[in-house]
Amino acid sequence: AVSRDAGLVAAGKPAESGMDEQALAKIHKRMEEFIAARQITGAVTLVARRGRVVYLDAAGQADVAGDRKLATDSLFAIASMTKPITAAAVMILQDEGKLKLDDPVSKYIPAFSQTTLADGNKPAREVTVRDCLRHTNGLKSDQKNVGTLAETAEALAKSKLEFEPGSKWFYGPGLSVAGRVVEVASGKAFDQFLTERIFSPLDMKETSFRPTPEQGQRLAKLYQPTADKKDLEPGKHWLFELSPETTPNPSGGLYSTAADIVRFYQMVLNGGDLNGKRVLSAEAVRQMTSFQTEENIPGLGAETGWGLGFSLVREPKGGMQMVSAGTFGHGGAFGTQSHADPAKETIFILMIARQGFGNDGPDLRAEFQKLAVEAIRN
Length: 378
Description:
With about 375 residues, the chain is an alpha+beta fold. The chain folds into 2 domains: about 15-85 and about 205-375, 3-Layer(aba) Sandwich (Beta-lactamase), CATH 3.40.710.10; about 100-190, no CATH class. Helix content is about 25%, strand content about 15%. It has helices at about 20-25, 25-35, 85-95, 130-135, 150-160, 175-185, 190-200, 215, 260-270, 280-290, 365-375; strands at about 40-50, 50-65, 70, 75, 225, 230-235, 255, 275, 275-280, 305, 310-315, 330, 335-340, 345-350. It has an 8-stranded antiparallel sheet, with helices on both faces. Strands 4-7 form a two-stranded antiparallel ribbon. Helix 2 packs antiparallel against helix 11 (about 365-375).
C-alpha cells in the first residue's frame, strides 16, 4: 500500500531524493512483524527527504473488531504532537509584535501575577511565555482542559508552582497556558487562529480539534496491552471521547494525518514557508529549533534538550541514535512520533494508536528511523 502523493512540494521517486526504494520497502515488512508480535495493531509511516515525500505506507488495522484497515489517510489522535503547533502560533504573534517571549504570562492572564510557590511564597520572578514553551514554568498538574481554555488557564494560575520559574525542567501543562495567551494576544479563539494562520496556508485540511463525522470514520482506534502483555485490547482515554463540546487543548488535542503533519515539519525545515506561503519568520524557526534549556538543567537527561515547543536531540543515543544532533520533533502519548533531521534533510513520521509505550517508545520507533536512515544513499 505504498503511495507517494502526500501533496508536498513534489512527491517523487526516492532516488531523486538520494534514497533507495527497496531499502525503504523494508519499513512495511518490519511494521508487519510488530503487528504479528501484537505490539501494535497497525501503523502509518512516512519519510520525506529534500522536500519530497519518498515513502508513505499503511500497515495493519484501524479497527480490529470492525475489520477496518488502516489507510494512508487514516486520522490519528496526535496528543502531545500538538505542542510544537501551539508554539508556532505563539511565534507568529511574536513575529507580528503582539507579544514577546519574555513577557510575564500575567500580561495576558492577570491571575498569573498571584501565582505562588508550594510554600506560599512569591517566586523570584514571574512565569514567562518562554517558560511555557520550554517547560521551565513550575506547573505540574494534569494536561486535561478544565472547561474552556480561559477557565483552564485560570485554574493553572491558582495551582502552586513546584519550583522557581527557569530553575528546572518539568514536562507539564505550559503549552495550555500558551494557547490561552494566543487567544488573548490575537483576539481570536485558539482553534480559529490555528486554522487561519497555520492549517489553511499549509493546506492541512485534515488537522483539527474536532474531526468531522466523515473524518471520525477514518480515525484509528486506540489499543492497549492486555494484562499479560501478550496481546492488545481496546483502550480508553479522554482524548478519544469525541464530542461537539470538546474544547481545544493546546497541549494535546489535535487529530491529524501523516500527510498533514509532514507539511508542518517541512515548513519548519524550510525556514518558515511552504509552497510560497510564509507562516513563520526564519528567526522564529531558528529560536524554536535551538536549545532554550541549559545543558545540565535539572529534570532533563544529557541527550535531550528543549527548544520552543520542540524536543531537541543533543546527543544521538538510545532510541534516537540514528539521527543527527539538532534533530527536532515531538512524540504523542499514543505512540505517534514526528522528527525532522536538518543535517539529513529528512522527516520521519510514525502514526500509531496504542497506550502503554514508555516515553521514548519501544524499539519500534528506533527501528523505523533506523530503516529510513539506512535507505539514504547520498
